[in-house]
UniProtKB/TrEMBL annotation:
Residue span(s) of domain HD Cas3-type: 15-183
SMART domains for this protein: DEXDc (SM00487), HELICc (SM00490)
Pfam families (alphabetical): Cas3-like_C_2, Cas3_HD, DEAD
Name listed for the protein in its UniProt record: CRISPR-associated helicase, Cas3 family
GO MF, one annotated term: metal ion binding
InterPro entries assigned to the protein according to its UniProt record, in alphabetical order: Cas3-like_dom, CRISPR-assoc_Cas3_HD, CRISPR-assoc_Cas3_HD_sf, DEAD/DEAH_box_helicase_dom, DEAD_box_RNA_helicases, Helicase_ATP-bd, Helicase_C-like, Helicase_Cas3_CRISPR-ass_core
Keywords in alphabetical order: Antiviral defense, ATP-binding, Helicase, Hydrolase, Metal-binding, Nuclease, Nucleotide-binding
Family to which the UniProt record says this protein belongs: In the central section; belongs to the CRISPR-associated helicase Cas3 family.
Gene Ontology BP term (one): defense response to virus
Length: 827
């Protein structure tokens, strides 16, 4: 051992302590990587080679510029990780030592060098100048460092790894290196040490630390457990999930059944079998909204401990820190020790994908294939998981998100991952596209089966799609009736509420929902209101109240009316006797109708105040379409929310049939509106139809532009933009307001009660259309009270959030008011 190799600093001393040598830090990270690789099925020689490469990730810290930055605070002209690539990309000694294909090495080296979330984009023509800038001393010590580290893993070899496989593995290796570096850089777990040990001695020390702290981080992995998950009698889909044959290799499954048929439990039953078959070492549940993710967290926390041996469990979305069940789990206030969440995992939502079980919005998974920083880390975290995507139809129905989901399935399969997709209303052509994407990633040649069986459990590569017994819905056939306008809807709801029925009116737009409450109150009905333009604290309060009233075991529901927007389609488990809905596309109406006569075991027919389930739809007559403003004569803002052609097709079919017969006829209803065989629209709607088609192509094209080029490998295919630059969803731009009150001349958050000040400010946020807000004289953010309030906020938060004090009457500024019962409204 040449002692002068230890003179290159990797980390500055803490609190006057010693510097941590760069080569010690490199061994810290290698020891963590070794631990993380324990569950890998790759050959042992390959795993040793990956560990050696990861040890070399910070080779660029051996250089004059980096040493001067640590000791003198001078600025680096070349980033150390870019210099790592310049040293290693064409190193003949290392290539020969690893028996590596030169092109395979050129795929892998940028992956370990780009461990700060993005690859280097330095032109190779500048590599000689970069190496020269490191200084003559570094130039002499680099070969010695490589040889010294290589001697610690004599079995390391990349023999047999070709360029194609290495290109695919480059994403996996980049994510693994980042995760190992994050853990190995924790100064509490790997404290700075004076250079008093040989490399072999220090590696032994680092391996001991990794053995303790990788489990402490919560990423050591766990084992699958057999045994019963549920003690109830299985429904047909759950029976199919428990008995369907599983194919070899990466596996994709579609669970298609009506709302309320127990798809989530079926997915868990199937996922347990997949875990036991070695098709994953954990789970990630991808949900459409934060509300559905929060609900799934509660359900999954009670089950995953029976599927895995003491797994780590995390919640991943922008408001996870406000979830009481998640906070209880972090602080060990949960009732069971079957699941845990470490402080390290909870500290960053990007790490949620590294836990044994992650539950979050689908956005967290989609970011794994976006041109955003740390996409490879997310992809690596998912690679060992069974990806469970709920409400897949909501994603595949949006051309932009559909492309992202297709690319995610492709990349996940290429990493050896498996997936289960749950849906009630997925069109066959969308299912085929998702199937094709997964097959391309897995390198499989599946027949794109378009079997229309419904309900169905489809597992490509096994047998044909497995039809599942279409058990008649306990509530029977849902009758459909058209209402000509909002006045008729309000009259119907008033009569129904007076007869003791629990009622809901689902509106397409927030302003229309607010107007509907006014219509009902004019008829003596004190309706409650739920939409997305409430401050988070008020929305949580209202959701809890409506669940307590209209949920499975709700009380005080008789004679009550809820007016809500699309938030009730999938986020809340509600049950109504009478439903009115604005006209919406077929898939949305089917989802909404799933909240009608939902819990027949709790409230059978003879206990309902109306004789049968009926969906009343506010809509113009589809047989009379005078012009392209056909829908606007009945709906206001809600006429703009969905494609007009899909609206007309839905009305035309549904009012001719006069019923929704679930689950038997759901496939026919979906295909007739959303599938390839949709009927032509009236000539006056042709322009709207062409606009819908064109917008669909445009959204898919933009999705293609915003995803990484997985096939090009990490160096050429990845990028390093901020998450916000490449959104996971498209839509009208919103602006976030933080509502405030004045108390004794001081601004305080609108949200009151317990919690930190930062939490209460988050709970006080509400988002609305940016274009509309920008036209209003919102409060000056430089005003003394507001400036004092935001003084300690980070710059990004001050730029992203507008503080808006409301007076006692709820007025924020001319034209804008807020109240806890109506939310944010334009006056």
């Amino acid at each position: 051992m040449v002692s002068h190799l230890l003179d290159w600093p990797g980390k500055s001393g803490r609190d006057g302590g010693p510097e941590h040598p760069a080569i010690y830090h490199m061994l810290d990270v290698a020891a963590v990587a070794e631990r993380l690789l324990r569950g890998s099925t790759r050959p042992e020689a390959h795993k040793a080679a990956f560990t050696l490469l990861i040890a070399l990730h910070d080779l660029g810290k051996i250089g004059a510029q980096f040493r001067e930055m640590i000791r003198c605070g001078t600025r680096q002209m070349i980033r150390h990780w870019e210099l790592t690539e310049a040293w290693l990309l064409d190193d003949p000694w290392l290539m020969d030592r690893l028996q590596a294909d030169p092109w395979a090495m050129r795929a892998l080296i940028p992956a370990i060098a780009g461990h700060h979330g993005r690859p280097s984009k330095q032109d190779e023509r500048f590599f000689p100048r970069m190496r020269s800038g490191a200084g003559a001393e570094a130039e002499a010590d680099i070969p010695a460092t490589i040889e010294a580290l290589a001697s610690l893993w004599p079995e390391a070899s990349l023999a047999g790894l070709d360029e194609i496989e290495a290109t695919r593995l480059s994403w996996w290796l980049a994510g693994l290196t980042t995760a190992a570096d994050w853990i190995g850089s924790n100064a509490d777990w790997f404290p700075a040490r004076s250079p008093d040990l040989s490399l072999a001695e220090y590696l032994a020390l680092a391996r001991g630390a990794a053995a303790r702290h990788v489990p402490e981080a919560g990423v050591a992995g766990t084992a699958a457990r057999a045994g019963e998950l549920f003690d109830f009698t299985f429904r047909p889909m759950q029976q199919a999930a428990a008995s369907a044959p599983l194919p070899g290799g990466p596996m994709l499954a579609f669970i298609e059944d009506e709302t309320g048929a127990g798809k989530t439990e079926a997915a868990l039953i199937l996922a347990q079998r997949m875990l036991l078959a070695g098709k994953g070492r954990g789970l990630f549940f991808a949900l459409p909204t934060m509300a559905t993710a929060d609900a799934m967290f509660i359900r999954a926390a009670a089950v995953v401990g029976r599927m895995l041996d003491r797994p780590t469990l995390t919640l991943a979305h922008g408001r996870a820190g406000l979830s009481v069940p998640f906070l209880d789990l972090q602080h060990r206030r949960s009732r069971s020790d079957d699941v845990t969440c470490t402080e390290w995992l909870a500290d960053d939502r990007r790490r949620a994908l590294l836990a044994d079980v992650g539950i979050g919005t689908v956005d967290q998974a989609l970011l794994a294939v976006m041109r955003a920083r740390f996409s490879a880390l997310r992809l690596w975290g998912l690679s060992s998981k069974i990806l469970i995507v709920d409400e897949a139809h909501e994603i595949s129905g949006d051309g932009y998100m559909a492309i992202l989901l297709e690319r995610l399935l492709q990349a996940h399969a290429a990493q050896g991952g498996s997936a289960v997709l749950l849906t009630a209303t997925l069109p066959l052509d969308a299912r085929a596209r998702l199937m094709r994407a997964f097959a391309e990633g897995a390198g499989m040649n599946w027949a794109m089966d378009r079997d229309p069986a419904y309900p169905a459990l489809t597992i490509p590569g096994a047998d044909k799609p497995q039809p599942v017994a279409a058990t008649p819905s306990p509530k029977g056939v849902v009758t459909v009736e058209r209402l000509p306008d909002g006045e008729a809807a309000a009259d119907l709801l008033a009569r129904s509420a007076q007869a003791g029925a629990a009622c809901v009116w689902v509106r397409n737009a927030v302003d229309d929902a607010i107007a509907a409450v006014d219509l009902l109150r004019a008829r003596g009905i004190d309706a409650s209101l739920l939409h997305a333009r409430f401050a988070l604290c008020d929305r949580k309060r209202i959701e809890a109240a409506e669940l307590a009233r209209f949920g499975r075991n709700g009380n005080g529901r008789a004679g009550r009316v809820l007016v809500a927007t699309q938030v009730v389609e999938s986020s809340l488990d509600l049950d109504f006797d009478v439903m009115v809905s604005d006209l919406a596309p077929m898939a949305a109406l089917i989802q909404r109708a799933g909240r009608l006569w939902r819990h027949m075991d709790e409230r059978p027919q003879d206990q309902r105040p109306v004789p049968r389930p009926m969906l009343h739809v506010v809509s113009p007559d589809p047989a009379e379409v005078p012009d392209a403003r056909w829908l606007h004569q009945v709906l206001d803002g809600g006429a703009w929310v969905y494609p007009l052609a899909e609206q007309w097709r839905t009305a035309d079919l549904l009012f001719r049939r006069g019923e929704i017969n679930a689950p038997h006829e759901l496939r026919d209803l979906i295909e007739a509106v959303h599938g390839d065989g949709a009927v032509p629209v009236p000539p006056v709607l042709d322009a709207a139809e062409q606009e819908r088609i064109g917008e669909g192509y445009a959204r898919r094209s933009l999705g293609d532009q915003n995803v990484v080029d997985f096939g090009a490998g990490y160096r050429q295919g990845a990028a390093g933009a901020d998450d916000t630059r490449y959104p996971t969803r498209l839509g009208r731009e919103t602006r976030t307001l933080a509502l405030a009150r004045r108390v004794d001349g001081v601004l305080v958050p609108w949200a009151q009660g317990d919690g930190t000040l930062a939490d209460r400010w988050q709970l006080s946020e509400v988002s609305a259309d940016k274009a509309r807000l920008d036209r209003l004289p919102l409060p000056d953010q430089e005003a003394p009270q507001i400036a004092a309030t935001t003084r300690d906020w980070p710059d990004w938060r001050r730029a992203a959030v507008t503080v808006c004090p409301a007076d006692d009457a709820g007025e924020i500024c001319e034209g804008l008011r807020y109240s806890k019962s109506s939310g944010l409204r334009w006056v």
